[in-house]
Amino acid sequence: MDNIWPESGYSLLERRADGRLGVSDAFLRAYLQRPEIAPVEESCDSERTLHAALLDAPRRSVAAQRLRALADPDAVENYQVLLAFRDRLLAADSLEDAYLRLFLEPGGVAVPSLFIDQLAHVLLRHVLTGCADPLRWRAAELFFREQAVTINEGYVMAADARTVETYATSGGFGALGQLVSQAQTPLRTVDLDVLDDTNAALYWQRAEAYDTVLNLNFAGSGLDAFCRVLEAWVGHMLQLRISVQPVQKISDSRWVWHVGLDREASRLLDDLWNGDDVDEARLARLVSLFRLEFADPSVMPSQIAGRPVYLALMMDERKRLKLKPQNLLINLPLAERA
Description:
The chain is about 40% helix and about 15% strand. The protein has helices spanning about 25-30, 45-55, 65-70, 75-90, 95-105, 115-125, 135-140, 160-170, 175-180, 200-205, 220-240, 265-275, 280-285, 325-330, and strands at about 15, 20, 145-150, 155-160, 195, 210-215, 240-245, 260, 285-295, 310-315, 320. The chain is globular.
C-alpha cells in the first residue's frame, strides 16, 4: 500500500501538518521530464538551455522573450501551457487549493484535462492513505481514468478504457499483437479479472497495470466502495462529513438539488428535474443514482437544510464513463461560510 500509484508523483510532494499537500521542487521537475517538454535530438540550444535552467530552479521566472527564442513553435506552446499551470500551483496555498481554484475562476478551465486528471490522481492517493480496502483504491480510478462500461446479463462492469483499447488492438501482446490483429488473425482472448470481496487483494500487485474490472451493480461491494471514496473525497477537499448511498430511483416530491458526477449525468438529472421526456435508450445508459446527505445540515442554505442531494453516474453513447470529480466539490448546496 505504501508504494501504490508511484506514477502519481505523491512521493515528491510535501505532506504538511495540516493534512494538505505542498508543491515541492521535485514535483515541478517531474513535469519538466514529460515527453512534451523534455528536449529531443532536434531541440535547439535555446530550448536545451531553458530546460536545464528550469531543472536547476523549477520556480524560475521565464520571460516571454526567452520563450520566443525557441526554434520549435510546438515547444513554445508546450512551455507556455506548462509554465502557466506551474504558476497556478505556486500561487495556491496547497495542491488541494490549486485544484479547487481551477474550477472557480471565471471564463472556464484553462488547463489541459491531462493535468486535471493528474491532480485528481495524486490527491486521491493522499485521500486514501492508510485505506486497506483494495476495492476503494480501484473505485478511485474512476476519478482520473476513463472507464469502458459493459452491461451484460444484469452485471454492470467498469474496465479501464485505455486498457480495453490496448487489448482490442493488440490482444495484450504489444506490437506483435497489433501485427496479428492487422492480419485479421484471431487472437487469444484475454480476460480481465473482476474484483470482488474474495479476490480484491489482486489489486495490490496490479494497481499500476489498470487491468482489473470493478462491478458497479446496485448493493454490491464495488458500488459501496465508490460511495466511500466519494465521502472521503468531499471530506478531505471540503472538510465536510457526508454520507452517500446508492438508490434505484428518485421518488421525492421535494427533490431540490442534484449533482451529475459526469457530463451525461448532469444533463440527464437536469432533464428529469425539469420534467422533460427522456427516452429509454438514454435512461439505459444510467449506471447508478445516489442519495447524499450532510452530517451537519446547517452547512446547507437554510431553505433546503436537511434535504438530500441526488447524484448520478452515467456512460455516454460510446459506453464510456468519464467522471468529473470536481462537480461534487463545486456544485454542492453550501451556505456561505463565515
